[in-house]
Write a structure and sequence with these properties.
This protein has helices spanning 12-24, 79-90, 100-112, 125-140, 166-169, 180-183, 194-204, 229-240, 259-263, 290-293, 312-323, 329-352, 391-395, 399-411, 432-450, and strands spanning 46-50, 53-56, 61-64, 118-122, 144-148, 186-189, 208-213, 243-247, 270-274, 284-288, 356-361, 364-369, 414-415, 424-425. By secondary structure, the chain is an alpha/beta fold. The strands form 3 sheets. The protein has a 7-stranded mixed β-sheet with strand order 4-10-9-8-7-5-6, sandwiched between helices. The longest helix has 24 residues, at 329-352. Ligand KE4 binds at residues 31, 33-34, 69, 124-126, 129, 152-154, 165-166, 214, 218-219, 247, 249-250, 274, 284, 422. Residues 31, 33-34, 69, 124-126, 129, 152-154, 165-166, 214, 218-219, 247, 249-250, 274, 284, 422 line the site of ligand KE4.
Protein backbone atom coordinates (compact mmCIF):
# COMPACT_ATOMS: atom_id res chain seq x y z
CA UNK A 1 0.00 0.00 0.00
CA UNK A 2 1.71 3.19 -1.12
CA UNK A 3 -0.20 5.58 1.14
CA UNK A 4 1.42 7.82 3.73
CA UNK A 5 1.07 6.18 7.10
CA UNK A 6 0.36 7.78 10.42
CA UNK A 7 3.46 8.09 12.58
CA UNK A 8 4.55 4.49 12.25
CA UNK A 9 5.51 3.52 15.78
CA UNK A 10 2.00 4.27 17.07
CA UNK A 11 0.05 2.33 14.45
CA UNK A 12 2.01 -0.86 13.76
CA UNK A 13 -0.76 -3.35 14.61
CA UNK A 14 -3.32 -1.45 12.53
CA UNK A 15 -0.92 -1.38 9.62
CA UNK A 16 -0.21 -5.10 9.90
CA UNK A 17 -3.96 -5.78 9.94
CA UNK A 18 -4.44 -3.46 6.98
CA UNK A 19 -1.83 -5.35 4.92
CA UNK A 20 -3.63 -8.64 5.67
CA UNK A 21 -7.01 -7.08 4.94
CA UNK A 22 -5.85 -5.71 1.60
CA UNK A 23 -5.11 -9.28 0.49
CA UNK A 24 -8.69 -10.39 1.07
CA UNK A 25 -10.92 -7.31 0.79
CA UNK A 26 -11.05 -4.55 -1.86
CA UNK A 27 -9.16 -1.56 -0.44
CA UNK A 28 -8.76 -3.57 2.76
CA UNK A 29 -12.15 -2.42 4.02
CA UNK A 30 -15.83 -3.33 4.10
CA UNK A 31 -16.90 0.23 3.24
CA UNK A 32 -14.85 2.87 1.37
CA UNK A 33 -15.08 5.85 3.72
CA UNK A 34 -13.43 3.97 6.61
CA UNK A 35 -10.32 3.36 4.48
CA UNK A 36 -8.96 6.83 5.38
CA UNK A 37 -8.01 6.97 1.68
CA UNK A 38 -9.67 10.33 1.35
CA UNK A 39 -7.22 11.78 3.88
CA UNK A 40 -4.26 9.93 2.35
CA UNK A 41 -3.66 7.61 5.31
CA UNK A 42 -3.90 3.94 6.24
CA UNK A 43 -6.91 3.11 8.41
CA UNK A 44 -6.75 2.28 12.09
CA UNK A 45 -8.39 -0.92 13.26
CA UNK A 46 -10.55 -0.55 16.34
CA UNK A 47 -10.43 -3.15 19.08
CA UNK A 48 -12.92 -1.69 21.56
CA UNK A 49 -15.45 1.06 22.05
CA UNK A 50 -16.94 2.12 25.38
CA UNK A 51 -19.01 5.27 25.89
CA UNK A 52 -17.46 8.03 23.77
CA UNK A 53 -14.05 6.34 23.64
CA UNK A 54 -12.37 3.99 21.19
CA UNK A 55 -9.20 1.91 21.57
CA UNK A 56 -7.37 0.81 18.42
CA UNK A 57 -5.30 -2.33 17.76
CA UNK A 58 -2.18 -0.56 19.06
CA UNK A 59 -3.85 0.53 22.27
CA UNK A 60 -4.22 4.17 21.17
CA UNK A 61 -7.27 5.77 22.76
CA UNK A 62 -9.57 8.20 20.97
CA UNK A 63 -12.48 10.43 21.79
CA UNK A 64 -14.88 9.40 19.02
CA UNK A 65 -17.05 11.63 16.82
CA UNK A 66 -17.68 9.03 14.10
CA UNK A 67 -19.86 6.93 16.44
CA UNK A 68 -20.31 4.32 13.72
CA UNK A 69 -21.49 7.10 11.32
CA UNK A 70 -24.54 7.77 13.43
CA UNK A 71 -26.09 4.66 15.02
CA UNK A 72 -24.45 5.02 18.45
CA UNK A 73 -26.41 7.94 19.88
CA UNK A 74 -26.11 6.31 23.34
CA UNK A 75 -22.36 5.76 22.94
CA UNK A 76 -20.41 2.56 22.39
CA UNK A 77 -21.39 -0.65 24.24
CA UNK A 78 -24.17 0.96 26.27
CA UNK A 79 -25.14 -1.34 29.18
CA UNK A 80 -28.82 -1.41 28.18
CA UNK A 81 -27.98 -2.44 24.62
CA UNK A 82 -25.41 -5.02 25.79
CA UNK A 83 -27.93 -6.58 28.16
CA UNK A 84 -30.73 -6.66 25.56
CA UNK A 85 -28.54 -8.25 22.89
CA UNK A 86 -27.03 -10.80 25.32
CA UNK A 87 -30.46 -11.82 26.59
CA UNK A 88 -31.83 -12.16 23.06
CA UNK A 89 -28.76 -14.11 21.90
CA UNK A 90 -29.15 -16.56 24.75
CA UNK A 91 -32.57 -17.49 23.36
CA UNK A 92 -31.54 -17.63 19.73
CA UNK A 93 -31.11 -14.87 17.17
CA UNK A 94 -32.49 -16.04 13.85
CA UNK A 95 -35.61 -18.05 13.26
CA UNK A 96 -36.89 -17.30 9.77
CA UNK A 97 -40.13 -16.70 11.61
CA UNK A 98 -41.71 -13.63 13.20
CA UNK A 99 -40.56 -12.40 16.61
CA UNK A 100 -42.12 -10.08 19.17
CA UNK A 101 -39.16 -7.72 18.93
CA UNK A 102 -40.12 -6.72 15.36
CA UNK A 103 -43.56 -5.68 16.54
CA UNK A 104 -42.24 -3.79 19.55
CA UNK A 105 -39.73 -1.83 17.48
CA UNK A 106 -42.36 -1.03 14.83
CA UNK A 107 -44.64 0.29 17.60
CA UNK A 108 -41.82 2.43 19.08
CA UNK A 109 -41.14 3.98 15.65
CA UNK A 110 -44.83 4.67 15.06
CA UNK A 111 -45.16 6.27 18.50
CA UNK A 112 -42.32 8.67 17.72
CA UNK A 113 -43.06 9.35 14.04
CA UNK A 114 -46.78 9.94 13.28
CA UNK A 115 -46.13 9.73 9.52
CA UNK A 116 -44.68 6.23 9.91
CA UNK A 117 -47.62 4.22 11.27
CA UNK A 118 -46.46 1.16 9.29
CA UNK A 119 -42.94 -0.01 8.61
CA UNK A 120 -41.04 -2.82 6.88
CA UNK A 121 -37.66 -3.76 8.32
CA UNK A 122 -34.67 -4.48 6.08
CA UNK A 123 -30.94 -4.78 6.76
CA UNK A 124 -29.43 -1.47 5.66
CA UNK A 125 -30.28 2.08 4.72
CA UNK A 126 -29.49 1.22 1.12
CA UNK A 127 -32.10 -1.52 1.15
CA UNK A 128 -34.62 0.79 2.78
CA UNK A 129 -34.23 3.45 0.10
CA UNK A 130 -34.24 1.10 -2.87
CA UNK A 131 -37.40 -0.57 -1.53
CA UNK A 132 -39.08 2.81 -0.92
CA UNK A 133 -38.32 3.87 -4.50
CA UNK A 134 -39.80 0.65 -5.89
CA UNK A 135 -42.92 1.26 -3.82
CA UNK A 136 -43.15 4.90 -4.94
CA UNK A 137 -42.90 3.91 -8.61
CA UNK A 138 -45.50 1.18 -8.13
CA UNK A 139 -47.90 3.45 -6.24
CA UNK A 140 -47.73 6.26 -8.81
CA UNK A 141 -47.25 4.20 -11.96
CA UNK A 142 -44.49 6.64 -12.84
CA UNK A 143 -40.73 6.16 -13.32
CA UNK A 144 -38.99 9.50 -12.75
CA UNK A 145 -37.08 9.90 -9.49
CA UNK A 146 -35.74 13.28 -8.35
CA UNK A 147 -32.71 13.35 -6.06
CA UNK A 148 -30.60 16.15 -4.64
CA UNK A 149 -27.01 16.75 -5.80
CA UNK A 150 -24.76 15.48 -3.01
CA UNK A 151 -27.52 13.39 -1.49
CA UNK A 152 -26.32 9.95 -0.48
CA UNK A 153 -28.85 7.18 -0.04
CA UNK A 154 -26.60 4.12 0.04
CA UNK A 155 -25.34 2.42 -3.09
CA UNK A 156 -28.71 2.34 -4.84
CA UNK A 157 -27.97 2.11 -8.59
CA UNK A 158 -30.54 4.69 -9.60
CA UNK A 159 -29.24 7.18 -7.03
CA UNK A 160 -25.50 6.88 -7.62
CA UNK A 161 -25.65 10.11 -9.55
CA UNK A 162 -23.82 13.08 -8.02
CA UNK A 163 -24.01 11.16 -4.74
CA UNK A 164 -22.34 12.37 -1.59
CA UNK A 165 -20.40 10.67 1.21
CA UNK A 166 -17.92 8.12 -0.07
CA UNK A 167 -19.38 8.24 -3.59
CA UNK A 168 -18.01 11.78 -3.86
CA UNK A 169 -14.51 10.91 -2.80
CA UNK A 170 -14.10 7.25 -3.65
CA UNK A 171 -16.11 6.50 -6.79
CA UNK A 172 -16.99 8.64 -9.77
CA UNK A 173 -20.35 10.18 -8.87
CA UNK A 174 -22.03 7.98 -11.42
CA UNK A 175 -20.26 4.76 -10.52
CA UNK A 176 -19.03 2.34 -13.21
CA UNK A 177 -21.37 -0.63 -13.45
CA UNK A 178 -24.50 1.51 -13.36
CA UNK A 179 -25.99 1.35 -16.88
CA UNK A 180 -27.21 4.65 -18.33
CA UNK A 181 -30.65 3.05 -18.65
CA UNK A 182 -30.82 2.77 -14.85
CA UNK A 183 -30.13 6.45 -14.24
CA UNK A 184 -32.07 7.68 -17.28
CA UNK A 185 -35.05 8.17 -14.99
CA UNK A 186 -33.09 10.02 -12.32
CA UNK A 187 -33.08 13.80 -12.28
CA UNK A 188 -30.83 15.81 -9.98
CA UNK A 189 -31.70 19.10 -8.31
CA UNK A 190 -29.51 21.43 -6.27
CA UNK A 191 -30.43 21.54 -2.59
CA UNK A 192 -32.09 24.69 -1.28
CA UNK A 193 -32.88 25.80 -4.85
CA UNK A 194 -36.60 26.53 -4.97
CA UNK A 195 -36.69 28.02 -8.52
CA UNK A 196 -34.98 24.91 -9.94
CA UNK A 197 -37.50 22.66 -8.23
CA UNK A 198 -40.44 24.73 -9.45
CA UNK A 199 -39.08 24.69 -13.00
CA UNK A 200 -38.58 20.90 -12.99
CA UNK A 201 -42.09 20.24 -11.71
CA UNK A 202 -43.53 22.67 -14.22
CA UNK A 203 -41.86 20.75 -17.04
CA UNK A 204 -41.98 17.17 -15.83
CA UNK A 205 -44.25 17.02 -12.78
CA UNK A 206 -46.65 14.53 -14.35
CA UNK A 207 -43.78 12.06 -14.83
CA UNK A 208 -42.33 12.29 -11.33
CA UNK A 209 -42.87 9.27 -9.08
CA UNK A 210 -40.97 10.69 -6.12
CA UNK A 211 -38.51 13.18 -4.75
CA UNK A 212 -36.04 11.46 -2.42
CA UNK A 213 -33.89 13.57 -0.14
CA UNK A 214 -32.14 13.89 3.16
CA UNK A 215 -34.24 16.57 4.86
CA UNK A 216 -31.04 17.80 6.51
CA UNK A 217 -28.11 16.92 4.28
CA UNK A 218 -25.45 14.96 6.12
CA UNK A 219 -23.45 13.37 3.31
CA UNK A 220 -21.80 16.50 2.00
CA UNK A 221 -21.26 17.58 5.56
CA UNK A 222 -24.18 19.02 7.54
CA UNK A 223 -26.30 21.39 5.45
CA UNK A 224 -29.72 22.28 6.93
CA UNK A 225 -32.72 23.20 4.75
CA UNK A 226 -33.32 26.92 4.23
CA UNK A 227 -36.67 28.43 5.23
CA UNK A 228 -39.47 27.34 2.94
CA UNK A 229 -37.48 24.77 1.00
CA UNK A 230 -38.99 21.58 2.39
CA UNK A 231 -42.48 23.07 2.39
CA UNK A 232 -42.07 23.98 -1.29
CA UNK A 233 -41.06 20.43 -2.21
CA UNK A 234 -44.07 19.11 -0.29
CA UNK A 235 -46.45 21.47 -2.15
CA UNK A 236 -44.90 20.67 -5.54
CA UNK A 237 -45.25 16.93 -4.90
CA UNK A 238 -48.88 17.33 -3.80
CA UNK A 239 -49.73 19.35 -6.88
CA UNK A 240 -48.06 16.87 -9.24
CA UNK A 241 -49.25 13.69 -7.53
CA UNK A 242 -45.65 12.71 -6.73
CA UNK A 243 -44.46 11.22 -3.44
CA UNK A 244 -42.02 12.83 -1.02
CA UNK A 245 -39.57 10.23 0.29
CA UNK A 246 -37.63 11.40 3.36
CA UNK A 247 -34.34 9.58 3.76
CA UNK A 248 -33.97 9.78 7.54
CA UNK A 249 -31.44 6.98 7.81
CA UNK A 250 -29.08 9.50 9.43
CA UNK A 251 -31.50 12.06 10.92
CA UNK A 252 -34.12 9.62 12.23
CA UNK A 253 -34.02 9.73 16.07
CA UNK A 254 -30.83 11.83 15.67
CA UNK A 255 -32.05 15.44 15.26
CA UNK A 256 -35.07 14.85 17.50
CA UNK A 257 -37.35 12.05 18.65
CA UNK A 258 -39.50 12.62 15.57
CA UNK A 259 -36.52 12.93 13.24
CA UNK A 260 -36.07 15.84 10.83
CA UNK A 261 -39.71 15.52 9.71
CA UNK A 262 -40.73 16.29 13.29
CA UNK A 263 -38.15 19.05 13.74
CA UNK A 264 -39.25 20.76 10.52
CA UNK A 265 -42.92 19.77 10.71
CA UNK A 266 -42.89 18.06 7.32
CA UNK A 267 -45.27 15.33 6.12
CA UNK A 268 -43.37 12.81 3.98
CA UNK A 269 -45.25 10.09 2.14
CA UNK A 270 -42.52 7.53 2.84
CA UNK A 271 -39.66 7.58 5.34
CA UNK A 272 -36.42 5.58 5.27
CA UNK A 273 -34.68 4.77 8.54
CA UNK A 274 -31.55 2.97 9.69
CA UNK A 275 -28.55 3.47 11.99
CA UNK A 276 -30.03 4.49 15.40
CA UNK A 277 -33.07 2.18 15.14
CA UNK A 278 -30.65 -0.77 15.16
CA UNK A 279 -28.50 0.49 18.04
CA UNK A 280 -25.33 -0.40 16.12
CA UNK A 281 -26.52 -3.69 14.59
CA UNK A 282 -27.41 -4.07 10.89
CA UNK A 283 -30.82 -2.55 10.22
CA UNK A 284 -32.90 -0.45 7.87
CA UNK A 285 -36.59 0.30 7.56
CA UNK A 286 -39.02 2.10 5.29
CA UNK A 287 -42.49 3.16 6.27
CA UNK A 288 -45.49 5.36 5.77
CA UNK A 289 -49.27 5.24 5.71
CA UNK A 290 -51.25 2.01 5.30
CA UNK A 291 -52.46 2.94 1.81
CA UNK A 292 -48.90 2.83 0.51
CA UNK A 293 -47.40 0.20 2.80
CA UNK A 294 -50.14 -2.33 2.12
CA UNK A 295 -48.93 -2.42 -1.47
CA UNK A 296 -45.88 -4.34 -0.17
CA UNK A 297 -45.88 -8.14 -0.41
CA UNK A 298 -47.54 -10.18 0.97
CA UNK A 299 -50.22 -7.55 1.63
CA UNK A 300 -49.88 -6.28 -1.92
CA UNK A 301 -48.11 -6.88 -5.23
CA UNK A 302 -44.84 -4.97 -4.69
CA UNK A 303 -42.23 -7.58 -3.89
CA UNK A 304 -39.55 -7.08 -1.24
CA UNK A 305 -38.05 -9.66 1.11
CA UNK A 306 -35.01 -10.44 3.28
CA UNK A 307 -33.65 -13.44 5.17
CA UNK A 308 -32.46 -11.34 8.10
CA UNK A 309 -35.06 -8.59 7.89
CA UNK A 310 -36.38 -7.84 11.39
CA UNK A 311 -33.52 -9.86 12.87
CA UNK A 312 -34.30 -10.27 16.59
CA UNK A 313 -30.79 -9.19 17.69
CA UNK A 314 -30.94 -5.93 15.74
CA UNK A 315 -34.49 -5.39 16.91
CA UNK A 316 -33.43 -5.93 20.54
CA UNK A 317 -30.58 -3.42 20.19
CA UNK A 318 -32.93 -0.93 18.54
CA UNK A 319 -35.60 -1.32 21.20
CA UNK A 320 -33.06 -0.80 23.99
CA UNK A 321 -31.83 2.33 22.23
CA UNK A 322 -35.20 3.91 21.43
CA UNK A 323 -36.48 3.23 24.94
CA UNK A 324 -33.79 5.66 26.20
CA UNK A 325 -34.87 8.29 23.67
CA UNK A 326 -38.55 8.53 24.60
CA UNK A 327 -38.39 11.97 26.20
CA UNK A 328 -36.98 15.35 25.15
CA UNK A 329 -34.29 15.25 27.88
CA UNK A 330 -31.64 13.34 25.87
CA UNK A 331 -32.20 15.65 22.90
CA UNK A 332 -31.92 18.74 25.08
CA UNK A 333 -28.59 17.39 26.34
CA UNK A 334 -27.37 16.64 22.80
CA UNK A 335 -28.44 20.10 21.64
CA UNK A 336 -26.47 21.73 24.45
CA UNK A 337 -23.36 19.67 23.68
CA UNK A 338 -23.70 20.46 19.97
CA UNK A 339 -24.03 24.17 20.66
CA UNK A 340 -20.96 24.05 22.91
CA UNK A 341 -18.84 22.27 20.30
CA UNK A 342 -19.97 24.61 17.52
CA UNK A 343 -19.18 27.73 19.54
CA UNK A 344 -15.81 26.31 20.56
CA UNK A 345 -14.78 25.40 17.03
CA UNK A 346 -15.88 28.78 15.69
CA UNK A 347 -13.91 30.63 18.35
CA UNK A 348 -10.83 28.47 17.78
CA UNK A 349 -10.96 29.04 14.01
CA UNK A 350 -11.36 32.77 14.46
CA UNK A 351 -8.41 32.86 16.83
CA UNK A 352 -6.30 30.87 14.35
CA UNK A 353 -7.44 32.90 11.35
CA UNK A 354 -8.75 29.79 9.58
CA UNK A 355 -11.83 30.32 7.33
CA UNK A 356 -14.07 27.71 8.97
CA UNK A 357 -17.86 27.55 8.63
CA UNK A 358 -19.35 25.24 11.29
CA UNK A 359 -22.82 23.93 10.44
CA UNK A 360 -24.98 21.84 12.73
CA UNK A 361 -28.37 20.31 13.28
CA UNK A 362 -28.73 19.02 16.82
CA UNK A 363 -25.88 16.59 17.52
CA UNK A 364 -24.64 16.25 13.95
CA UNK A 365 -22.06 18.87 13.01
CA UNK A 366 -19.51 19.65 10.29
CA UNK A 367 -16.72 22.26 10.18
CA UNK A 368 -16.30 23.29 6.54
CA UNK A 369 -12.81 24.43 5.59
CA UNK A 370 -13.57 27.28 3.24
CA UNK A 371 -10.80 27.34 0.63
CA UNK A 372 -8.36 30.22 0.35
CA UNK A 373 -8.77 31.19 -3.35
CA UNK A 374 -5.52 31.42 -5.30
CA UNK A 375 -4.05 34.95 -4.97
CA UNK A 376 -6.16 37.33 -7.02
CA UNK A 377 -8.61 34.55 -8.02
CA UNK A 378 -12.32 34.89 -7.36
CA UNK A 379 -13.51 32.67 -4.53
CA UNK A 380 -15.67 29.75 -5.66
CA UNK A 381 -18.54 28.64 -3.53
CA UNK A 382 -19.13 31.82 -1.58
CA UNK A 383 -17.23 34.10 0.78
CA UNK A 384 -14.97 32.79 3.55
CA UNK A 385 -17.74 32.84 6.14
CA UNK A 386 -20.70 32.25 3.81
CA UNK A 387 -22.85 29.24 4.70
CA UNK A 388 -22.45 26.03 2.72
CA UNK A 389 -25.86 25.84 1.04
CA UNK A 390 -25.42 22.91 -1.35
CA UNK A 391 -23.14 20.37 -3.03
CA UNK A 392 -21.31 22.97 -5.12
CA UNK A 393 -20.42 24.97 -2.01
CA UNK A 394 -19.26 21.82 -0.23
CA UNK A 395 -17.07 20.70 -3.15
CA UNK A 396 -15.42 24.14 -3.15
CA UNK A 397 -14.14 23.59 0.40
CA UNK A 398 -10.49 22.83 1.13
CA UNK A 399 -10.36 19.02 1.41
CA UNK A 400 -6.58 19.06 1.90
CA UNK A 401 -6.94 21.38 4.87
CA UNK A 402 -9.55 19.06 6.33
CA UNK A 403 -7.20 16.09 5.77
CA UNK A 404 -4.35 17.82 7.64
CA UNK A 405 -6.75 18.75 10.44
CA UNK A 406 -8.02 15.15 10.59
CA UNK A 407 -4.49 13.76 11.00
CA UNK A 408 -3.54 16.29 13.65
CA UNK A 409 -6.67 15.46 15.62
CA UNK A 410 -6.17 11.71 15.21
CA UNK A 411 -2.61 11.98 16.55
CA UNK A 412 -4.06 14.07 19.38
CA UNK A 413 -6.49 11.28 20.24
CA UNK A 414 -9.69 12.54 18.59
CA UNK A 415 -11.34 10.31 15.96
CA UNK A 416 -13.14 12.37 13.30
CA UNK A 417 -14.79 11.17 10.09
CA UNK A 418 -11.94 10.94 7.52
CA UNK A 419 -13.70 13.20 5.02
CA UNK A 420 -14.90 16.76 4.72
CA UNK A 421 -18.14 15.33 3.35
CA UNK A 422 -19.33 13.63 6.51
CA UNK A 423 -21.07 14.64 9.72
CA UNK A 424 -19.50 14.41 13.14
CA UNK A 425 -21.81 12.77 15.69
CA UNK A 426 -22.06 13.60 19.40
CA UNK A 427 -23.49 10.92 21.68
CA UNK A 428 -25.12 10.91 25.11
CA UNK A 429 -21.85 9.43 26.38
CA UNK A 430 -19.98 12.65 25.52
CA UNK A 431 -19.53 15.14 28.36
CA UNK A 432 -18.94 18.87 28.48
CA UNK A 433 -15.36 18.06 29.50
CA UNK A 434 -15.01 15.94 26.33
CA UNK A 435 -16.28 18.83 24.22
CA UNK A 436 -13.91 21.30 25.89
CA UNK A 437 -10.96 18.90 25.43
CA UNK A 438 -11.91 18.55 21.75
CA UNK A 439 -12.02 22.31 21.30
CA UNK A 440 -8.60 22.74 22.93
CA UNK A 441 -7.07 20.14 20.60
CA UNK A 442 -8.85 21.65 17.61
CA UNK A 443 -7.48 25.08 18.49
CA UNK A 444 -3.95 23.68 18.53
CA UNK A 445 -4.50 21.83 15.24
CA UNK A 446 -6.02 24.88 13.54
CA UNK A 447 -3.20 27.13 14.73
CA UNK A 448 -0.62 24.65 13.42
CA UNK A 449 -2.57 24.43 10.16
CA UNK A 450 -2.37 28.15 9.72
CA UNK A 451 1.17 28.71 10.85
P1 LIG B 1 -26.35 1.95 4.69
O1 LIG B 1 -26.71 1.13 3.47
O2 LIG B 1 -24.87 2.34 4.72
O3 LIG B 1 -26.83 1.33 6.00
O4 LIG B 1 -27.17 3.32 4.62
C1 LIG B 1 -27.03 4.11 3.46
C2 LIG B 1 -27.44 5.53 3.78
C3 LIG B 1 -28.68 5.96 3.37
N1 LIG B 1 -29.11 7.22 3.62
C4 LIG B 1 -28.33 8.09 4.31
C5 LIG B 1 -28.83 9.47 4.57
C6 LIG B 1 -27.04 7.70 4.77
O5 LIG B 1 -26.27 8.58 5.44
C7 LIG B 1 -26.59 6.39 4.49
C8 LIG B 1 -25.22 5.91 4.91
N2 LIG B 1 -24.38 6.88 5.55
C9 LIG B 1 -22.94 6.68 5.39
C10 LIG B 1 -22.22 7.82 6.11
N3 LIG B 1 -22.30 9.03 5.42
C11 LIG B 1 -22.52 5.34 5.88
C12 LIG B 1 -21.03 5.16 6.05
C13 LIG B 1 -20.46 4.20 5.04
O6 LIG B 1 -20.87 4.25 3.86
O7 LIG B 1 -19.58 3.41 5.44
Amino acid sequence: MSKTRLSAQHYQQSHRLFLRAAQRMPGGVSSPVRSFKNVGLSPVFIRQGRGAALVDADGNRYLDYVMGYGPLILGHAHPAVRAAVASRMSRGACFGCCSEEEVTLAELIAAAMPHVPMVRFVNSGTEAVLSALRLARAATGRALIVKIAGGYHGHVDALLVQAGSGATTHGTPSSPGVPAAVTADTVVLAYNDIPAAEKLFQRQGARIAAVVLELVMGNIGVVPPEAGYLETLRALCDRAGALLVADEVMTGFRVGRGGAQGRFQLRPDLTCLGKIIGGGLPVGAYGGGARLMNLISPAGPVYQAGTLSGNPLAMAAGIATLRLLETSEPYDRLEALGRRLQAGLEAAAKQAGVPLVVQRCGSMITPFFRSHPPRGAARRGGAANAPVRNYTDALACDQRAYGRFFKAMLDAGVMLPPSQFEAWFISLAHTEADIDRTVRKAAAALTALHS
